[in-house]
Amino acid sequence: MLVSYQWLQDYVDLSGVSPEEVAELLTRGGLEVDHIHRYHDGMDGVVVGKITDSGPHPDADKLTICQVDLGDKTTQIICGATNAPKANKVVVAKPGTVLPGNRTIEATEIRGHKSEGMICALDELGVSENLVAKEQHDLIIELPDDAEVGSDALEYLGLNDVVLEIDLTPNRSDALSMLGVAYDISALLDRPIKVPEIEHGAVRKNAIDQVSVTVEAGVDVPYYGAKVINKVTIEPSPLWMQMRLVAAGMRPVNNVVDITNYVMLETGQPLHAFDYDRFGSKEIVTRRAYPGETMTTLDEQVRTLNEEDIVITNGNTPTALAGVMGGASCEVIETTESILLEAAQFDPVRVRNTAKRTNLRSESSTRFEKGLDAQGTVRAAERAAYLLEKYAGGAVLNGIVESGEMPVFEQEVELSLGAVNTRLGTELDQKETEEILYRLGFGVEDLGDRWRISIPSRRLDINIKEDLIEEIARIYGYDRIPTTYPVSERNAGRLSNTQKLKRKARRFLEGAGLEEAITYSLTSEEKSKRFRLDEFSDDVRILMPMSEERKVLRQSLLPQLLDSISYNKNRQNNDLALFEMGAVFLPNPGEKLPSELWHIAGAFSGDRTAAAWNKTAEPVDFYTAKGIVEGLLEQLGLTEGVSYQVAKREQLHPGQSADVVVNGQVVGFIGQLHPTFTAREGLPVTYVFELRGEALLTEQDKTMRYDPLPRFPAIKRDFAVVVDAQISASEVQHVIYEAAGTWVKDVTLFDVYEGEHLEPGKKSLAYSVTFLNKERTLVDEEIVKVHETIVERLQSKLGASLRG
Amino acid sequence: MIDRLEELKLEAQSAVTSSQDKKELEQVRINYLGKKGPITEVLRGMGKLSAEERPVVGQKANEVREEIQASIDSKQAFFEEAELLEKLSAEKIDVTLPGKKVEAGSPHPLTAVVEQIEDIFVGLGFEVTEGPEVELDYYNFEMMNLPADHPARDMQDTFYVSEDTLLRTQTSPVQARTLQAAKGEGPVRIICPGKVYRRDEDDATHSHQFMQIEGLYVDKHVRMSDLKGVFDTFVKEYFGSDRAIRLRPSYFPFTEPSAEIDVSCGVCGGDGCRVCKQSGWIEVLGSGMVHPRVLEMNGFDPDVYSGFAFGMGVERFAMLKYGIDDIRHFYTNDTRFLSQFKHV
Fold it and tell me: Which CATH superfamily is domain B109-341 in?
């Protein structure tokens, strides 16, 4: 909402209050001023001039040489506008003036003739081109006779105005008008409101004899009023009115249309003017549109309507889309002589839906959508009639033709001083509270222990006592509410166990050198199928997706994390270690909401550690990813029952991928991306993991006890065995543990060898096994015995031989 | 013999002094103190001495022996010291070469901000609660006092999954869920961080996915002045003790009275600058007293209980705190961006 500071002063005295102060006052009062526009800033030396003589430029067809009286002197200016030859009073920018767009006017010579200044068009003075009336485009401004030669032209045009841009909250539909804003200022400043003039003359003829109004459904159209105005002369509206519309961001059209818009901006009540003679009948009938019915709206678009739309008709064809836009067939045009002036109330929801569907959000529809002041409709019609009489020469017919009854709607709400103070934490007394209520224009009736407060019909947003408490608080001043601390029983705030574990997992991964990423939950149908841990059933889809890329909810984190890898690769960020934690979404048959499962994923490419003066670069590999997963599981308290099984998964390298198994359940996987997949996706060699986070958190053991430190020494034995190359390390390890009995404390694989010193197809695994007995010192013979058992068992089970 | 011993002593000491290394020194020791050395010889010849002389000479011989040994020890120590110094000097390295650095990763700035805010509110007695990202219209809108035709639904264009399920547009539904779970019994003190979604085209200031933190404090006798107190504490803790807050009337369907909370501009200190659009204040969050309808619909008696609620945009907090100018940075995960947050 754009609010002209000068215009505001028609309704409330702002003497001594600067535009900045008004802005601050409104903002603190709940009408947030987002921006203060000063279009004239820096424009000095723009004056009213009178063209005393003019003639064509001898060397240029389109130019006119004008002699312009500027009051203090007469000067020669060359002008290219087509209306220059016959113009009288004009706007002149003198040499030295800086116009918007940083355009400095200089005395110059055009084809051998002096030109000292510029005669201006509106857009040259900073008025946005789409706010300049169509017929004014490329024309210089012609000022009325009363403009004083030599005086400040910006002031005459009202272009020295300051415009406040208010960002209205949706509840404050009452402030969608100059008067509405003025009411708030009046309350905030405690100065009286000046109500605009509506008393017009009337001719003998009665409107009721010229037109009838029939409303088919009162729910759709609670009130419809029509006035008839004869003998109008269509011409441009007065310049001051045009400039006010411009300040409010509306383009002037002609006096009749401008007056309807002016009154809408002033009162908040949208109005519409039909050409009476081209209306098509003498009856106004409002109804629902027929399915498929068409009409041409003012913007020359053919609209196809449906039975959800309310239309104004002449009993036969639609003449307006109610509240949204008029029809082209009976638009006010140059030859219009009589008009039908509509002032109505329409069902806000229907107007909203129609405006939305037809994509015709307008100044009018936004006001209807939010609901209108029940008592403002007829007043607005009378106000427009007054202005039409004054500025369009109209003869206003007697009365208003109506259907429906305007509810004399005055809401009453009871409120006590105690309720105000306990809710706000203030110590207001009765008198100052009542004064605030009066300032807001509310009626106050003292009922002893409480008030009965009547709310003006323009304030549709006030229905319950809390609404009133807010009104009192905002006029009193939110900043005057004291600062206190809640008095309630003390308690310790906390994170849940799960939240703590999630933080722990994050800290571990960060400490391990991974950077946390956050990606989008919405993805494409194709990507949602990749890297799933669960059987694919179906996607959780968005009904009206914005794009193919954001169509369904992710079922795994990796596809999006790989997008980040690819994004980085394209920017030459090659050494990457990313992780993400977040929800994936699986359909949940029989339930309304999908299952949201918490996952952890990681992706690595490039070097794990960069080359340095004392080491060569260490590229990431399968074991980088696995080591991170192992460490993470340990951090989460999963030290037992974890194993890694050879796995085959789509998109993963068949020889370098493993499932992570915890207590017999597959909880995730680790692997290298399949080379075919990386080639297709333009990805570097990448190692990944994705884990079902939930499974890891619920496994948490909360009863951890410390293991007493051993009082006897541990004994270490190293040995290497040779086995077939395809036997996995975990098989060997498993046999060692089995054979070693209860004394084994730790088994560490410290070397793996395949090569020239071994038979082909064989590999050597070197282990260091630590034995410990908590009760006594182990003797060498015992260890030798266990060692022998291990070797025997490896031999019999895996065909292993001890390496010499 | 006494003289001979004295002579030997001087001779030996001179040999110790002139020895060049440990090896020569050892030779000196063998020469003078060894089994075949002159002192041993002197002692061996003591049988020839009288009973009176014997102890005198014996004592002298032991003294000489000890003195020579002391000289050798001291020279030995000198050699060892020199050797050590030489070794240390040979082991000198360039300590300005880079270390074997342990390269840590970094938290995502949004996570960092969420955790910082969580920690402050946990300190103020709040619990951290979460809710689903795919939500029922019932919790997201209806129970938050936003019935089907409410114009404020336009403020937040919604991704629907079905007629009555949607991607939550705000973290507020967690308020409704928590209140209903509390079955009308206060106090309820929660904050709820999480992802939310709105139909916006992604650009420098809009993102179809972003994060919010919702908060709710419901108890008997909660006042609007308490809201001010809690946020004064929060803002000073989060932004710095020199920052002030300002409340402005606003509108949210689920609070009444409602307030926008501004914090004094950290760049200009409140004098007005480009960052705060000359106002001296920066809008940081929406808040208000819980609407009685919301309390009632979710099982709390509005005549007994009151409370305040608030919601803040995590991206906005991160952008303000770290001067980030494009919201898309949070979701493209450029490692040159992420790695800057190691120390936060």
Answer: Bira Bifunctional Protein; Domain 2 (3.30.930.10)
